[in-house]
Specification:
By secondary structure, the chain is mainly α. It contains 2 helices and no strands. It has a domain of 48 residues.
């Protein structure tokens, strides 16, 4: 097997290959996670005229879920 010379064009092709595949895979993970995150946030919104405790519970839940969501992206 012959050894290939390293050129900027070949390096760019390899970089582009990794980049677009990472982008596609990220979308496959991100879109369903965002749908779940949005569904959970909308289904647990405090009711109008609700107590401040409900709002604080929702804020605490979102603070717990956000790092999990971000970790799944990376």
């Amino acid at each position: 097997m012959d050894q290939a010379d390293i050129t900027w064009l070949r390096a760019l092709k390899i970089w582009w290959s990794f980049s677009w595949r990472a982008f596609v895979l990220m979308l496959l993970v991100m879109v369903p996670l965002e749908a779940v995150f949005f569904w959970y946030a909308m289904s647990n919104l405090p009711k109008a005229g609700g107590s401040p405790a409900d709002a604080m519970r929702m804020a605490g839940t979102m603070a717990a879920i956000w790092p999990i969501f971000m970790a799944a992206l990376f």
